[in-house]
Amino acid sequence: MADRYLSLTRTAPGRFLTRRIGLPQPAELIRRSDRHPRLTGGLLHLTAGRTDLGLAPVLARTGLGADETGHPAAVVLDATGVRDVDTLAEVHAALHPVVRSVTASGRVVVLGAPLDAADHHQAAAQQALEGFTRSLGKEIGRGRTVNLVRLTDADAAESTLRFLLSPGSAYLDGQVIEVGPGEVTAPADWNRPLTGRTALVTGAARGIGAAVAETLAGQGARVVVLDVPQAEQDARELAERLGGSALALDITAADAGERLAGVLPDGLDLLIHNAGITRDRRLVNMSADRWSSVLDVNLAGVLRTTDALLAAGTVNRGGRIVATASIAGIAGNAGQTNYAASKAGIIGLVRSLAPRALAEHGVTVNAVAPGFIETRMTAAVPLLIREAGRRMNSLAQGGLPADVAETTAWLAHPASGTVNGQIVRVCGQSLLGA
Ligand code: NAD
Hints:
This protein is of the alpha/beta class. The protein folds into two domains: 31-178, NAD(P)-binding Rossmann-like Domain (Rossmann fold); 198-426, NAD(P)-binding Rossmann-like Domain (Rossmann fold, 3-Layer(aba) Sandwich). The protein is 38% helix and 17% strand. It has 15 helices and twelve strands. The protein has helices at residues 4-9, 12-20, 56-60, 85-95, 120-139, 158-164, 207-218, 232-242, 256-263, 288-311, 328-331, 337-361, 376-379, 383-391, 401-412, and strands spanning 43-49, 74-81, 107-112, 145-150, 176-178, 198-202, 222-227, 245-248, 268-273, 315-324, 364-370, 423-426. The strands form two sheets. It has a seven-stranded parallel beta sheet, sandwiched between helices. Helix 10 (288-311) links the parallel strand 9 and strand 10. Helix 10 runs parallel beside helix 12 (337-361). The relative contact order is 0.12. It binds nicotinamide-adenine-dinucleotide (NAD). The site of nicotinamide-adenine-dinucleotide has 27 residues, from helix 7 and helix 13. Nicotinamide-adenine-dinucleotide binds next to helix 7 and helix 13.
């Protein structure tokens, strides 16, 4: 369903009227496309505190040259050396003079260090960066975003920095991402990093799943488009267009994992759990059937198939599992006790399985947690709640399926083996669950 308010604010009279009465002014986000393969403008590299991260060569490889115009498209502030309240002041000193000059739809990326358990001054100053990042994200406006990456090694964060400093991350705002040390496999071609990889995307006949399939295929992956038998026609058409294959299978079938292992004799590199349903009712009106159908598709099916595919050795070493949570699983939502329970369950699954899956199978496990994304699922939401969902985020608009797809592709990247156990909200910094 089209966002009519967004269209209205794109017209001169609409903009005039909505400004006059103080309504939100959603900026036009610049997303990745043939016209916008990268941010337009240069990069400003700043530091706060003493740092020896060796960031410059990694930033140089992003393809963004140093800003020479005084209007950078991206600012990276290396605050890994912030150890106390005094050095924290350098964060203010570095960004205060430049924030206003960052171009529309530009990026601010703050780099922090892991919290030092043995030094509460360092931990306080580093945790302070989260409040800082989230607040700046809320006030910066004009489609600009602010995110924080915690890291110890710049090379280990290359895929993450490239993603955050690209138009692909347009709807990612106010996030804190931890990058571990780990092994990094640089792709032969950064434009088609998934070449030679096989991806299975569940619930891919439409909506977010279809966009994920399309984006992964666009980056070189061979995609298996899985959906329920009723959606087989759409799944086939998409698979044909992407040069992949379709699989009609209900992910809740008891033997779904075994059947998948059977049709993937050469294994699987990217397992994307996207299929999901809602059956909303307040708890007092919710039948056991509504509860169990949602828990079965959104959580139990994910647990069962993940277990079966890992046990069968179907997920290759260097593989990636990306599950789909939701901001409802973080903030809760009236009428969605079943859905929010299932999505919070995904977060528990990811946090528990990620370290073990990496140690035992060489596979990372992460989740995307979409906010309000324009799909058929959200088109069915009642008007007022739909409008609130669209507007109640720092970017004052809903996201697109492509935004979740780009985030998934970054997590699926061969150089993202250092990103594990993360729950990444793709929500324009939704006020719910922030
Ligand atoms: P959608 O309803 O448009 O698409 C979901 C797809 O999953 C459909 O093609 C459906 O047939 C398929 N599916 C459902 N049950 C299945 C099963 N048992 N086996 C196989 N396939 C099945 O939904 P969407 O908006 O694209 O959402 C995709 C995912 O993102 C879901 O997990 C959803 O909970 C999550 N999510 C969406 C939003 C949003 O704003 N749209 C927000 C947060 C989370």
